[in-house]
Model the fold of this input.
Amino acid sequence: MKPSQKSSITFTPPFQQLQVHNVSQYKRLDPECFHTLHKFDTDSRCIILEEIRKLEESGASRTEMFSKAAIAVYKRIGKLLTVNDVKNVQKTAIIILRNRLKAAIENDLSDEQTEEHLKDWCYYHVISHKKKDLENFVQKVKKKHEISKYAKIKEIPIESSFSAHAMPLWPQQTCYEYYYPTNEYLPNLPPTYSTKSLFTFNHPTTDYPQSYASYEQQSSSRPFFGNL
Done:
């Protein structure tokens, strides 16, 4: 159930009331006197936030403000809460308000749409005064959103390893056939490297014309790379 815009809920306190009229009496209470706030108790939380807002508007000292708020809540609904419980109610409400403002900005809602979005929240009417404390936060979120929305990724061009004014860096020549071309395809490197010239023949120099003619006949009978 959504509470009214201005909470006026007042419950009848228990029959045996504790005498809690000021902060000094409140501080002397035993721990078992305090009430545990239910996680779905929206009405009580609205009353807590309303009493805190009243004290803030009256300029009450922050050192005793939450104790006074707890006393005021007890007088209204008969639930005695610890200072930490009262603080956590306000702290949680402010966090939710921040998250709702951030979500509205990230969804590109206008100011009017944002206000309507916030009014759907059951605690907004008792925490709306905290918006002015979140102005810097809102500006930072807007700036970050604009940057992420319009920023473009700069592409760094990959320069070619070849230049018109530079010789390409060829890899080292390790192929055996590059140095010693033969008429046969060499699938593997030979175990030893020969330093003989390709055109060295085991024929006497006196028979050179005959030896060369024999070499030409052998070379023309098959392609340069052999049978691939």
